[in-house]
Amino acid sequence: MTLTVRDFRPADAKAVADLRRAVLPHLISTPQGVARQVAGAPPAKRLRVFVAELAGRVIGQISAQLVHESSVPGQAAGTPVVHPGHRRQGAGGALLTAAEEHLAAVGAEHLLAWAVDEPGSLAFAARRGYRLTRRAGFLRLDLAGTAPPPLPAPLPPGVRLCTGADFGADPYPLFAAEAEAAADEPGDVAIDAMDYETWLRTTWEHPDIDLDLTSVVTVDGEVAAFTLVATDGLGRCVSAMTGSRRAFRGRGLARLAKTDSLRRARDAGCTEAFTGNDDGNAPMLAINRAFGYRPFTAQRRCVRDLVQG
Question: Which residue from 72, 112, 210, 263 puts its CA 20 to 30 A from 4's CA?
Fold first, then answer.
């Protein structure tokens, strides 16, 4: 059987979603979400999705893209995903080569990828010339067996709980809050150049984002904190982003947003909740541990210079 690496086709959406769920169960992946990721990608992202095919079956994929939300030029991202039953057959290396060649051709200078924090994956990254930087963990909460804490009653003066759906007429305040929070998150590349129109297409209108489970805390009518939630309709939800605006930090409002979100998710029938944390994000790690989240998997950021200087 011959391994083939080719460009993604719309008919691959289900196969890619199934593959991602098998390899990355802590992330949300649906056929409609995969299709939207490709069709709705902004031109500045220069997205190119490759799949590895063996005997007519998709066994691997990689999404190669520029990090266009950063003010630092030349940054790119792409992590190979290969089905556990087809590893050590060359698919990961072939996918990574295709991504590196595409990204170098569109001006990328550095490629950021993730590797599972275990010897085999880290050795693969080292052989490919990647150096290790940050560590991040994914946590799981058993929503079926763990009740989220109660909401404070009454809420503090001026504080109100809303859903993302409440901002349907004007989602810009939620965008502004996420852009501010994302710019302050620890990471190898600052996400400090988000634009509203792209956010509308890639986040607000993304089919995996559940606006009814997304919780927003306002203070005197101003968005102060939020938890953005994605779901797959299979009982799983993921906190895609939780944050507070700078002027409102230190008041427990991010914890309030996440409490409300988890309660909504449990009431909606979700049985598992996942979240990701950079190891340097101590405040969110403390909040998630207090909710009962437990370690599920860990990854290491890997970086390779595509331009030798």
Answer: 112
pLDDT score at 187: 83
pLDDT of residue 309: 53
Name the band, by pLDDT with cuts 50, 70 and 90, for residue 213. very high
What's residue 262's pLDDT? 97
Mean pLDDT value across residues 291-300: 95
Cα radius of gyration (the chain): 20
Question: Is the bond into 149 cis (omega within 30 degrees of 0)?
Answer: no
**What's the 3-state SS for the chain?**
CCEEEEECCHHHHHHHHHHHHHHCCCCCCCHHHHHHHHHCCCHHHCCEEEEEEECCEEEEEEEEEECCCCCCCCEEECCCEECHHHCCCCHHHHHHHHHHHHHHHCCCCEEEEEEECCHHHHHHHHHCCCEEEEEEEEEEEECCCCCCCCCCCCCCCCEEEEEHHHHCCCCHHHHHHHHHHHHCCCCCCCCCCCCHHHHHHHHHCCCCECCCCCEEEEECCEEEEEEEEEECCCCEEEEEEEEECHHHCCCCHHHHHHHHHHHHHHHCCCCEEEEEEECCCHHHHHHHHHHCCEEEEEEEEEEEECCCC
**pLDDT at site 283:** 85
Checking if the pLDDT of 159 tops 90, the result is yes
Length of the chain: 309
Q: Distance between CA atoms of 112 and 54, rounded to whole angstroms?
A: 26
* Average pLDDT score over residue span 235-253: 95
Residue showing tokens 């004007």: 170
